[in-house]
Amino acid sequence: MRDLGRRIRGGLVFGMWAAALAYLALTGGLRHFLRPEFAWLVGAGAFIAAGFLLAILRHPVPLPLSRTLILLLPLVHIAASEPSSMGGDVFSNRFLGPQSSAADARPSSFPDAGDSTPEARVSDAEIRRAFEGGDEPPTGVEPPLSILQLLRNPQAHSGRTVRLLGLVHRDAALARHFGPGREVALYRFVVACCAADALPVTVALEGEIPPVTPEQWVEAEGVFELMALGNGTVPLVRASRVVPVDPPVDPFLY
Fold first, then answer.
1. 237 lies in which domain range?
2. Fewest CB within a 10 Å sphere: which of 118, 140, 171, 182?
């Protein structure tokens, strides 16, 4: 009877772990916690948990209740977590200002954009037009961008209409980063490894911004510009349209 109880308790714990990790790996749910490149590690974890399950069914070992609860706590967190759980509170704690957002957005494998003047930089669109023999500047609305794409090459989009997807955050404290009267940010989180290291990339929003519920995803459309403020610049979208939309499949940027 004692061995049966040990088998049931151990089988429950490791069976739940194997099922949870397999579910995350097969459905893409791990993207709420890790970069997609780590899917193979989660899959390997599912096999290891399944191995422990088989081992404890054949050779039951004591598993005290306290250890059982500790092993199950992460599963409770996984089950309760949603993409929207990283919202305004996390943004307020991790946002260090627009300059840090732009620096975080710049890929380390590329030359520092600050090493050249805006006049010296040539966008991909300008190179493409040169090969196509076109002299006229592009008109109309830019294709949908991520905030990360925008901040990696802001000069290429300055003065143009852009569409961005993100979360809206209103806070009077943002005025010290964006300038007087600018208290609305559009942001998304960029993940280097996992959700624990996620940092927000942000643009300021200016215009008639309708009230939205907390953690509501929106699509913002407007003219993008780099606004001088003090010794730096602020990425600003003069929004002409802000509408609620469904959350993206992947809430993070990479």
1. 88-253
2. 140
* Residues in the chain with pLDDT values less than 50: 106-139
- Taking the C-alpha atoms of residue 105 and residue 108, their distance in angstroms, rounded to an integer, is 9
CB 107 within 8 A of CB 152: yes
* Count of the separate structural domains present in the chain: 2
pLDDT score for 25: 83
Angstrom CA distances, 28 to 42, 66, 239, 251, stand at 10, 31, 33, 12
Q: Do both 102 and 221 map to the same domain?
A: yes
**Which of 56, 81, 106 marks a domain boundary?**
81
Q: What is the pTM of this model?
A: 0.68
pLDDT at 165: 93
8 A C-beta contact, residue 218 and residue 168: yes
For the stretch 83-129, pLDDT in tens is 555 677 778 777 877 765 655 554 433 333 344 344 444 444 443 44
